[in-house]
Each structure stands twice: as C-alpha cells, then as structure tokens.
Amino acid sequence: MAAVCHIGDKLIGYREAGPHDAEALVLLHGIGGCADSWKYQLETLSRRYRVIAWDAPGYGTSANLDVDRPIARDYAARLAQLLENLGVTSCNLVGHSLGALMAASYARVFPERVKRLVLAAPAVGNGTALDAPLPESVQARIDDLNRLGPDAFAAARGPRLCADGADPAVVAHVTAMMARVRPSGYAQACALLAQGDLFADLPAIAAPTLVVCGAEDRIVAPARCRDVAAKLAGHRYVEISAAGHALYAEAPAAFDTVLTAFLEGTA
After folding, report:
1. Are 92 and 68 a contacting pair, CB within 8 Å?
2. What is this structure's pTM?
C-alpha cells in the first residue's frame, strides 16, 4: 500500500505491507532507488513482519530536506518523524547502499529503537568536510543526471548495479527505479555520500548487526563490506553468490532467507 505521512508541511512517502501489529521491519533504499525498489520484500516478508519501505527525502513523494548539503543525521531525524507518526517505537532496520549510512546514523542516535540492524552493500561515504567541494566522482553523478535526464541517466548506470548475466527483468526493474530520481533529491543524497562516514558511526552501534553483500558487487566491493563488518562487535557477515549491488532484487529468495535467519536469531 502506497501512502504519505504529513510532518507539519512536509510529506514522507512510503509503502507498507503486513499485519499492523507485527514486528516492524523498516527498509531504506539506496541512492538510485525508492520505496518500490523493495517490491519483493514487501510481498514476501510481510507474511511475518510489518514491512515499511520509505521514499527517502527528495525521492518519490517525499519532500526534500531543508538543507542543501544534508548529513546522515538529517535523514535519521526525518526517519524518526515517520516512524513516530506510524506508531513504531522499535524496529528491525535495513539500509541498502546509501541507505546504510542513514540506518547506521539512526541506530546510533536512537539505539533503544533498533532491535537488529542490517547493512546491505553499505556505502561508507567519502568523509568530505561540509565546507569542502564535492569529490569529482560525486559531482560527476549530479552533472550526468542534469545533462542526461533521469531516463538516460538510469539506462547508463542502472545495469551496473546487477551482476553480469542477471535476469533482464531484474535489470529492467532496477533501471526503472533509478529513472524515478528527482535531480534535487539526488543532489542532496550525493551530498550525504560525499560527507558521510560510516566508519565513524560503527563503534557506537549497540544493536546486533548483519553486513550482507553480493559476491559480484561492482559498486561496493565485498572486501569493503568485510571491512565494515570487522568494525562491528559481534557482527555477522554474509555474501550472496551470483548477485551484484542490487542483491535484494537479483537474489530475493537468498536475501530474504539470510535476513530472516538473522532477525529470528537462527543464524
């Protein structure tokens, strides 16, 4: 079910599925995604969880943040507003790619509200100072989107999120989700990518944490994901074979199995 939440004069778009009284599972998409990126999990995991997938600020029907160069805590604060509005006092939290920076910040700021944390193919950020120019690689993303427009931008970048030989239908889905980006929201997300520093948040995270990645990820290499996992006390690390960066869409059954086993404490 697609819905919007009103926070003052701001809107937050989200999708929700599953029993309202079930344990909450909150899904945060990456820089080229949206709530609908999680369509498989919204269908399958809602059989046992209250699944909530948001459109991050600046995506879908969600309002932009009020600062041009937001940091992870700005996204975490907006997420807190959404969950409070929905009556969610604690949850299992999953962040994919850029969403991992948001999820880790939320887990650090609101430790009592996160039961278990999952960082899927986590972006670690560039650690750029707030007053410094964006790194060339990050600025190039913004320039490409403005030059090409969302459709051509997604056609050029979307397939790289999947492993070689991925199901064409999955590649089409991932690309279609990226084509929905709004330039202004994407620019804010790029600022987070530039300024984010996942490693700074990791030591303060108290929740049991799973780091999961695709063995063929070309965006966030498995070696980098292992570096993230090594910074977490009592972590669990899993690689999913024959999957790339969009592992939740490329290998949804394997992803759901790994996720569920971690959330239920059976693995």
Report:
1. no
2. 0.97
DSSP string, 204-248: G--S-EEEEEETT-SSS-HHHHHHHHHTSTT-EEEEETT--TTHH
Closest by alpha carbon to 123, among 143, 141, 147?
141
Please give the domain boundaries of the chain with CATH numbers for all domains.
Answer: 2-263 (3.40.50.1820)
Q: What is the pLDDT of residue 267?
A: 61
Q: Could you tell me how far CA 253 lies from the centroid of its own chain?
A: 18
User: For residue 117, what are the β-bridge partners?
Assistant: 93, 209
Using DSSP bridges, classify how beta strands 50-54 and 114-120 pair: parallel, antiparallel or unpaired: unpaired
Task: Summarize pLDDT for 144-164 with one digit per residue, the tens.
Answer: 999 999 999 999 999 999 999
Helix segments in the chain, DSSP class H: 39-44, 72-85, 98-109, 136-148, 150-157, 168-178, 183-195, 198-201, 222-230, 247-250, 252-263
